Amino acid sequence: MVILIIGWTFSVVTDTGYAAVVIAVIIATLMSLGGYYKGDKVALLSAGAKGPIEKKDNAYVYRMVENLCIATGMPLPKIYIINDPAINAFATGRDPQHSSIALTTGAIKELENEELEGVIAHELSHIKNYDIRLMTIVIVLIGVITLLADFFIRSSFHGKRGSSKSNANGILIIVGIVFIILSPFIGRLIQFAISRKREFLADASGSLMTRYPEGLARALEKIAAQSTPLQRTSNATAHLYIANPFGSTKKFLSKSFSTHPPINERVKALRNMA
Fold first, then answer.
1. What is the rounded end-to-end Cα distance, in angstroms, of the chain?
2. Cα–Cα distances in Å, from 123 out to 73, 185, 227?
3. What are the domain boundaries of the chain?
4. Which sequence positions are flagged as catalytic?
5. pLDDT above 80: residue 168
């Protein structure tokens, strides 16, 4: 809807009819389809994940994921390993039939059996609740808004010269600047609102899978105590991980603009479930 409004505004200001609306719809559709079908591969590639592994590659991890999937009636996702000492994990994929889970070597090495099981259950819950599909679409649409804002600015400088167009160009510049300034903030606010709530939901759903909330609570405490950033990550995929992949920080603004709720709040909520 937002993209259509931007396209309509552009068509009215430039007097180009519905061409801008059509272009906006085409761009939004193509980018949404690309994110929907290929977003998981991009996330895995950007994280440096290796796989998918087979049971012979790591029977311990494979059986743990497999057992949880059997217990909950989920199809087995593809399993990837990230060679990184930080304790972290993420899930991706458009639905349970096309999903993947990635675990760092740090998580596999440092977490006890019940703790790693809690982390895996959390990620499987994201898949089961279709959280990844939702966040992938949100990210793609935010990118489209930013792209259209840039298009506004460029079009204003390449429009026809003359007094009849000067006001239109001025409006285009203002509109473009407003959207360029606001779109990152709007995007982040959407991610905060969705991602934080979905993290609490995945914590609760994962605990129902294992019937042992303390396992995930202890895993989160180890992640907070380690506070080690991942070697390869980006803002575009940070929300996918079970905890902030950039490590913990004491800066107020960094905490306020994090896609993850504070770990101490998550641990408290988990222990209240016991």
1. 43
2. 15, 27, 20
3. 2-273
4. 123
5. no
